[in-house]
Amino acid sequence: MPDFQRLWAAQSISETGTQIGQLAVPLLAIGALDASATELGFLSGARMLPFLVLALPAGALLDRIRRLPVLVVSDVCRALLLASVPVAYALDLLTFVQLYLAVLLVGVFTVAFDVAYQSYLPTLVRREDLADANARLTASASAAELAGPAAAGVLAGLLGAAATVLLDALSFLVSGLLCRAVRHREPAPEPSAGVRRSLRKEVGEGLGFVLRHPVLRAVAGCAALLNLGSSMLTVLVTLYMVRELHYSSTMVGVIFSLGGAGLLGGALCAGRVIDRLGYGRSITLGSVLCGVGLAVMPLASPELSLPFLLGGQLLFGFGVPLFNIAQVTLRQALTPDRLRGRMNASMRFVIWSVIAVGGPVAGLLAETIGMRGAIVVAAATGALAWPALVVSPVPALRRLPQVPEPT
Fold first, then answer.
1. Cα angle, residue 229 at apex, residues 172 and 112 outer, rounded to 5°
2. Predicted TM-score of the model (pTM)
3. Rounded distance, CA 21 to CA 9, Å?
4. How far apart are CA 126 and CA 320, in angstroms?
5. How many helices (H) does the chain have, and how many strands (E)?
6. Distances in Å between the alpha carbon of 291 and those of 86, 143, 149, 229, 319?
7. What is the DSSP track for 243-255?
8. What is the pLDDT of residues 62-96, one digit of tens each?
9. C-alpha of 314 from chain center
């Protein structure tokens, strides 16, 4: 299907650029602005703060309009915002204020893109092809996480972190052009027949749907704890490797790329695992693997760090796509189209907004109890995420349920 191929290519390119940028921006902050743990934590938080503030209203608004134009505009705006960072650096004008603002505004358009993207996909592919489409998209995202950090480390060493951020900007521009080439147009949302629609009521309807649904509620709770722990560890481990282990930019990239290798392996195996275990057990198994991977990382010490960092990244990476492919497909199938934007926004709000808290909390913990202590707290937070699933109806779900559109 040519339109899905275009969307898939757009996602693959932008994901690769994003992975490059997510390491290049902190490296630029460390190298050019001498960032502390707290400053890096708030930089990470700024990227995810829009999910805390804007995700819910974005979902309600995106249920009122076609989603494809939102993908194009979001990509172009993210490209322009990121391009401003290397320009300011070249002119010797880069400050933390600009870096925070650029990252924050990129997060705003990422909210719009992600909610629109996951809501648009079920209109582009058939219901029976959803799991395969999500698996392909996750595989390309996993490949990006494999190649992106290593490429970022190498490029930052060769070209500098600022030029590496520019590559991230260019990737969004290419992604936007590919989204613009998609020809499929989803049906326009039905008009409200002259009745004024309350944004607050629509937001409440979407969030209530997620919080009252036993499957969605359990998945959201588990994913939120995993994201909180992993976001804290990303900030802490990056600084730990640079400042205390004295790893080069290339070595830092290689470590994070091992997570990408696990992601790619998990994405390639996910279809067979879901066929064998069913959706619910696959989600549960993925969360357990993620928790074990996070629990391994605090064992890294200055005397022996590499095996634990590599092993932890690999295990966590393998669990993520297994968890994500199964749960994203399940929640898309569980939700009527009229609520899909709000459901995705509500899930994003619960699952990703914790990352806005995780970065600053990680920085403050490192300043208060030390780097090693903060890493232990972060790992424990994510490692204890899976029990929320075990006591829920999730493990019993083998196939996608048939959910009729309410009248």
1. 30
2. 0.68
3. 18
4. 24
5. 14, 0
6. 37, 21, 22, 9, 9
7. IIS---HHHHHHH
8. 777 788 888 999 999 999 999 999 999 999 888 88
9. 17
